[in-house]
Amino acid sequence: MKISKILLYEEPTVPQINLNHQKEFLSEIFNVEIEVRENILKFSRRDTSYSIAKCKVFKLRKDFQEHTPTQEEVEFEESNIQDTGNTENIIMYDGFQLQKVLTELIPEKENRQDIFHVFFTNKLTCTFDYNDYRYHGRALIGANPSIISTTGIIEAPAKPKEYYMDLMVNFAKGVNVDSVKEKYKGTYLEYNDPRLSTVIEGYLLQAIFYYETGEPFCQDSECRLFNPHWQKDLIHSQIEQQKLCQKHQHTLNQLRN
Ligand SMILES: [Zn+2]
């Protein structure tokens, strides 16, 4: 393996990530040193908050354009409050730009190929897709460092079509949306969902496989390396199956040797 050490950085606003559990999970698979670290932004300075606010995305159909943050936006980044649970209030960040900002916070002596850094964030990371010329939410920004976005896991794979239909019908009738949420409860991940911890295991594997092999996601919906477009597929591969496909199990065995 290229990797000799994995550093996992806390996102204190999302306790369901449970980094000690992730450390244990990875330790059982990989024979490398694994360390849990505090959130790297804890030691950042005001100019980091400014740099992060610059990564915000406002135009979904335009490639990244650097944003000039207001004082208020910089202060927001300093406090790192995210109003989760209300999709309309979710801020989008360009994942690759954010990755650059976070990379600069890694101490020089640890900015090495064999030390694999994984940042967890509650920010919704997005990337611009030249196939359809628009931004999409992403759960994982791969490379070293990798970023795993808990909001991306919850928001990027879509909920069932019927869920959105019911929402529209209820909205038109003026009925409270809570009844729709209740009807579909369990079929998709929610904020503070206890299953998040298990789902994150899969995203950690995706990040490590991508860095080690350079191959993107698996096409097999039964595999933990599958990139789901629907919440039901996410829940199937990460919660119900919790397995790698044969091909990737083989790759894993080779990596471990
Ligand atoms: Zn696979």
pLDDT below 50 for ≥5 consecutive residues: which ranges?
Answer: none
The CATH class is Alpha Beta
Instruction: List the quaternary state of the chains.
Output: single chain
Mind describing the biggest β-sheet?
5 strands, mixed
Number of strands: 9
Helices, strands, pairings?
Blueprint: E1 5-9, H1 19-29, E2 33-37, H2 46-54, E3 56-57, H3 71-79, E4 92-94, H4 95-103, E5 115-121, E6 124-129, E7 134-138, E8 140-141, E9 146-149, H5 150-155, H6 161-173, H7 178-184, H8 196-213, H9 231-241, H10 246-256
Parallel strand pairs: 1-2, 1-5, 4-6, 5-9
Antiparallel strand pairs: 3-4, 6-7, 8-9
Helix pairs in contact: 1-8, 2-3, 8-9
The structure holds zinc ion.
Model description:
This protein has 257 residues and is of the alpha/beta class. The chain has one domain (5-158, 192-256): Collagenase (Catalytic Domain). Helices cover 40% and strands 15% of the residues. Helix 1 packs across helix 8 (196-213), helix 2 crosses helix 3 and helix 8 packs across helix 9. It is globular, with a radius of gyration of 19 Å. The relative contact order is 0.13. Bound molecules: zinc ion.
